[in-house]
Amino acid sequence: MSRILLAAGAGALTFVALFAPTSQLFSTQTTAFLPQQAAAASEYASMAQYRTAQQPVMYVQMEPAQSQSEDVSSALGYGVMGFGVALAAAAFLMPAKERRVAMFATTLDPLIMDTSKAPKPWLKHKDELIKTASYIASPGKGILASDESTGTCASRLKDIGMEGTVEEQRVYRQMLYTTPGLSEHIAGAIMFEKTLYESSDDGVPFVKVLNDQGIIPGIKVDTGLKKIDGSPAETWTSGLDTLKERCAKYYEQGARFAKWRNVVYITDSTPTDAAILDCVTTLAQYAATCQAEGLVPIVEPEVSLDGDHDIETCKEVTRKVWKMQYEVLQQYGVMMEGKIGRAHV
Prior knowledge:
This protein has twelve helices and 14 strands. It has 345 residues and is of the alpha/beta class.
């Protein structure tokens, strides 16, 4: 950055020296001392009148000169022009990693990629996907996460003195979905696969219970985290191999959006490039598959908050992950208007 500014300053001085006229740079207002010719003695009636008349004097007469402010403005203009040209040239010639002007990094790659040759998995459900994503993102509303697995939900119920049976879990979900005024604050509800097929005490499917309130049912579609070989502190997410068939069934049951969990961990040696690449690629494949089957994908490359790292490290990792995420989403042809991006908080 300092080298660019130095080059720009040198360019400004060069432009001033080459193009600003010397008269504008060094001119000053000049004055002339000119004599005033007195009238000849013959023009007076008598010698007495001549002697009492005003004698010749020297007076100061200003010569016309260009305004000094105009000189400064002209030179300043050449300076600004030189600064701009030199700045642009220096920025262009600097290596891409060092092109930083006013704290913004510039690269030759555009943020929005050319996706004309990318696949279009969303063609069949385009309008519905856009409508669903827009509805879920309604101002003032959120998403109810009720997608705990059977084991996790049982553990939480046991913590409050219950047995955690499958029936107790169903009743717990029924309590959530029938809460008065729920739709005033909730636009969508993420469900566990088993819950998607369950019903209320009255035999009304939970999907219908939600739809009748204007709440869109969603579904958790990953099948769990696995350890990355050679990097046991990191994980990858399973479930892509059967995702397409399952999404088709979930759509038929009434689900209209999906959630998938991928996690990136921050330690002294992680995240590795392999873990980040796996995370963003898996999420892009999941998102494309969901859109092909009519489900709006929630894309959430989760940067874990666990650890003793500082906020600056978290910011840099999050920025790197999300930049790669959007690049890969575009490469897989994911329609941005038909997906929901969620930053982990």
